[in-house]
Amino acid sequence: MTWSEVFELLGPASRETAWMVGVASLFTAVGGLLIGVLFVLTERGGLLPAPPLNALLGLIVNLGRSIPFLILMVSITPFTRLVVGTSIGTDAAIVPLIVGAVPFFARIVETALHEVPGDVVAAATAMGAGRGTIVGKVLLREALPGLISGFTITIIAITGYSAMAGSVGGGGLGAFAIDYGYNRFEGKAMTATVLVLVVFVQLVQMVGDFLARRLSHR
Amino acid sequence: MGWIGFAIRITKVDQGVYVIEISGLRKTYRSRTGSVVAVDGVDLSVGEGEVYGVLGRSGAGKSTLLRCVNMLERPDAGTVRVGDVELTGLTGKRLRTARHGIGMIHQHFALLSSRTVAGNVAFALEVTGTPRAERKARVAELLELVGLTERAGAYPAQLSGGQKQRVGIARALAARPQVLLSDEATSALDPETTESILRLLLDLNRRLGLTILLITHEMTVVKRICRSVALMRDGRFAESGTVAELLRRPGSELASGLFPLGGPAGLDGATVVDVTVSGADADAPIIAELARRFDTDVRILGGAVETLATTRAGRWRLALPGTPQDNTGALEFLRSRGAEVEVAS
Hints:
Oligomer: heterodimer
GO molecular function (chain B): ATP binding; ATP hydrolysis activity
Number of strands of chain B: 14
CATH superfamily of the largest domain in chain B: P-loop containing nucleotide triphosphate hydrolases
InterPro entries (chain B): AAA+_ATPase, ABC_transporter-like_ATP-bd, ABC_transporter-like_CS, ACT-like_dom_sf, MetN_ABC_transporter-like, NIL_domain, P-loop_NTPase
Protein name (chain B): Methionine import ATP-binding protein MetN
CATH architecture of one domain in chain A: Orthogonal Bundle
Distance between the termini of chain A: 53 Å
Keywords (chain B): Amino-acid transport, ATP-binding, Cell membrane, Membrane, Nucleotide-binding, Translocase, Transport
Distance between the termini of chain B: 58 Å
Shape of chain A: elongated
Pfam families (chain B): ABC_tran, NIL
Strand order of the largest sheet of chain B: 6-7-8-3-9-10
């Protein structure tokens, strides 16, 4: 395998990975924020206390977090087929990526929201702010730097998961590295994959750090 | 009513008009290990334009009491009226509207770290639904009022503690409240900064007719700005009244806290008396007069003359040679000059 052959295959593989990670991150952001916010709202002493719902959410999140991704992926195959109509390929990989990453990000959201001092929320309440205002303008806005840092970590975790997905029919860089680099002993393919991933993770981390720093005025 | 109209309202303490009226307030916290009665039946009336201080140690229940005034804590029993509104029955939108009329400042300032000084004040205006077009001018007015115009673009992290509390005050006044609740507002500040914040509060009280209910564990705060004060212990008011009343109340704990008297309570061959004067009498030369008139070698064992918020007050522990019977005339004289006299021994 020559370098030019490697690059020829690396291009589409990278695009597939970018697609998987991109789409999964987007859905994870929405899902994780939703569950994380709901979790904080419903806890005891929260803005909308509902301990049973809170316990249920906690259970679901813990369940999702405790199953290793590889096992999660193969165990939800019927669900994946139901959603995207197939259980192989990049689109099929996106479903378990989201299912695996949402609980992960939800916990991060919860932690970030808890960082907002209670007296700031109390102050807003005392001013006569409603729940919507408090969530949008106080909790989420004050926690934004932490949320961005946490989302950066989540994107990187999804990238890792996506490589795992690739090894069992998900496509992308993971599949490329396994098919060529591992099974066919093509050192160049492996090296190239690792380099692309390192550069990608670096970039994501740099952008995330930059944004978090820009938005933090603590 | 415009801001200007509001600003020229004359401060008038009218005992007949209570802006805050609390009665039979009770609040218990329940936990797995048992329950703690934080507020155990408190009655409190704050007159219009008054500065009322609730003094107590941590755990006395004063913070819970204050948080019950704007329903940050729901009382278990009792009523809370602020202005014309009975708050205990309110929920949702009506409670939020009522809260616009009650400003609050906090010990740790509770500012939004992601917003500038101007942004923090604007937030309060957003909450009360002030149209965008009016906000800018109003923010400028409020920052001017607290002397922070130059720091409008700074973030809270770049401010000193005193400046942060000024932002807190500007924010609390955004909705033109009738009442300001102060939750240990100066407890995190050094003495000089405390003084400047207290001066600002007193100034706002006078200029805007703002009624202030504050809680504190610092006697200096009470001394400096309160017209009335209550001592809170184990969820109850152990003592309360105007500062002037308390100073004249024999055996008042608050009075001796406001004016700790040094010196021994007993002295051989002498009558020791605690003398308290307030108002114009505080600056009258009554001790000199006493010595001259009764030709007595009066000694001052301890004492001071101070300005308490607006009233001048003096308190001394004096030793007069001879028994109390020997000094009947002298004591009569002191009483005739408006002094409260208590024989210590």
